[in-house]
Amino acid sequence: MEQKMEFSSLLAVRQTFPKHPAIEDHAGQLRRKLAGSGMLESVGEGQRVALAVGSRGVTGLTAMVRALAAAVKERGAQPFILPAMGSHGGATAQGQSGILDALGVNERSCGAPVVSSMETVDYGPGSGGGAHVVVSRDAVEADAVIVLNRVKSHTAFKGSVESGLLKMVVVGLGKENGARAYHLYSLRSEFPRYMIELARGIMAHVNVLGGVGVVEDAAGRTVRLEAICSGQFESREAELLRFYKQIATRLPFEEADVLIVERMGKDISGAGLDTNVIGRSRHPVRPEPASPRIRRIWVRALTAQSHGNAKGVGLADFISPQLAAAVDLDSTVKNAVAALVPEHAFLPPSLHPERRILTECLRSAGVVDPLRAKIAWIVDTLDVGRLLVSPLLAGELADNTTVTGRESGTAFMFGSDGTLQDFEAHWIKAVED
After folding, report:
1. What does the alpha-carbon distance between residue 335 and residue 311 come to, in Å, rounded to a whole number?
2. pTM of the model
3. CB 216, CB 22: distance < 8 Å
């Protein structure tokens, strides 16, 4: 019988990020911003106004959608909620409304019905040629549209605008057909430039009044909330993106042998795992990030809010059995192929027991002495304020002024069947001992 590998202990460390006042009253702040923007001035009696909502778990999402719906009703108009999430939800109407419901966005909670359809209208090639301008038929038939999205770095490209309101117009409102059209052409063009061109093309046919842009800090707190008229999308979104990058989530080290990620999911990142955090993109046109350099990544679970869509699982080297069992391969492949990254749907090895996964991570990373391995464990790529790290990695973080830690810690806690206890159990043990 093969002798069990001995693993290093884990120390609990905290990472601090620039602090900005958090917005707690999302509804109140949105009402104030709407009043100052003039966005709803053209909305009139009896008009149908689409509130375009995506698949991300944005903090305060339900409260903001409810406030938007109420503001539209005050103008005598009829709001409805439009799933704007490209090919997510298995690229089905039912799947997309199901994602919104899981996020707490439905008629009961928000006071507006959800109208979900995958039908689109094709307006032909955009001004730059190439891909067609494709948009949701429900958006076309509405009298007006308002989009809501988190503004942050994109996982596949860099530009003046990345993931935010313009992307919601192009990819979200484009449904599966529009998402495919954009991604197909953008592989051979400049991602941000072409996204802006297509957004302009869509807004020439659809009355997009404006959008609600949200910026969250590394702790998931809302620190900016803006109501932006569509004519200001490009400039205002660029400003929000610059602000986000100043406070963005990042790991406090440049190199590690093994990174354990407790969970991945579509509500965490469009790629399941934020490529900017893990230092991997595995994208056909995007260069690999320069840092951090992580030799092996092990992901343990898929969030329930992903509804089986494990796009991005191919960014990992190993996955736990429970993650493998949660994967809806059809939904995952549809989303990955629509984004032209089938690599993100590749299923890594799933080994049982989990003790064996850690062993193989270390071996395949070329670790000679497991007790001196550089290991880090995080909850997910949105939550890197708390980390469990091996002593060698903790020593390298000693001079990092953003990191505080404890000298005590915990051993890896495996059950009798070799299953690893979760991050929270280890964190509590490491902090209390």
Report:
1. 7
2. 0.76
3. no
The CATH number of the structural domain formed by 26-247 is 3.40.50.11440
CB atoms within 10 A of CB 421: 14
Helix 175-186 with 329-338: angle, nearest 10 deg:
50
**Rg of the chain over all Cα atoms, to the nearest angstrom:** 22
Residue type at 433 in one-letter notation:
D
User: What string of DSSP letters covers 190-221?
Assistant: -HHHHHHHHHHHHHTTS-EEEEEEEEE-TTS-
Rounded Cα distance between 214 and 301, Å, is 27
- Alpha carbon distance 226, 33 (integer Å): 6
Query: Is residue 292 reached through a cis peptide bond, with omega within 30 degrees of 0 on the bond before it?
Result: yes
For residues 425 and 281, give the distance between their C-alpha atoms in angstroms, rounded to a whole number: 30
Residue 124, classified by CB atoms within 10 Å of its CB into exposed (0-12), middle (13-18) or buried (19+), is exposed
153 touches 382 (CB < 8 A): no
Would you say 292 and 273 are in contact if contact means Cβ atoms under 8 Å apart?
A: no
**Tokens at 220, concatenated:** 């998931």
Task: For residue 318, list its beta bridge partners.
Answer: 298
Q: How many CB atoms lie within 10 A of CB 16?
A: 13
For the chain, which residues make up each domain, given as ranges?
10-17+249-432, 26-247
Question: What gap in Å lies between CA 310 and CA 323, rounded to an integer?
Answer: 9
Which pLDDT tens digits describe the chain residue by residue (433 residues)? 456 889 999 999 999 887 788 999 999 999 999 999 999 999 999 999 999 999 887 999 999 999 999 999 999 999 999 999 988 888 899 999 999 999 999 999 999 999 999 999 998 876 666 678 889 999 999 999 999 999 987 766 677 888 889 999 988 999 988 887 777 766 655 666 778 888 898 999 999 999 999 999 877 889 999 999 999 999 999 999 999 888 888 899 999 999 999 999 988 888 899 988 999 988 876 778 888 999 999 999 999 989 999 999 999 999 999 999 999 999 999 888 887 789 999 999 999 999 999 999 999 999 999 999 999 999 999 889 899 999 999 999 988 878 887 667 899 999 999 999 999 999 999 988 6
